[in-house]
Amino acid sequence: MSEERENQLAPATSNDAAADGLTPAAEKAILSEIKTLLVSRQFSGPMPPPECLHQYDQIVPGAAREIIDEFRANGAHQRTMDQAVLEAASTRDTRGQWMACSLVLLGFILIMSLAYTGHDGVAIAVAVSLLGAVAANFLQGKKSESSQPAKDSDSAEED
Fold first, then answer.
1. How many distinct structural domains can be found in the chain?
2. Is 16:26 a contact under the CB 8 Å cutoff?
């Protein structure tokens, strides 16, 4: 049994090919095709290596330039979208701060008018509620900022 296994693992010779009914030319063609199927290249990253770009350009003239231009356009688009997201977040935060300021001022006016009309207990309750809400929102905002993972290391790798 071990002899059969050794024969199976041994490389084919021209005598073996003749015994199988293959001519040496047919055997060479088959081996060449098998070798072609086993050769492969892979790359990772946003762009293929220069050798591949050169081969693409040989097959389709101008293909390498199109790939590079597409890569640059995609990078510019990504930066534009990132900038738009940052501007939208900044606008949202500014709007929220103005609304909070307006509500606090309105609350103080309400507290002052309640205190002026002799409703001291209600004025104190509104003041405590208002200060509690402001403090809770402030602390909640700080908590969510600290729990978000830093994206600086991710974006540095992409550039």
1. 1
2. no
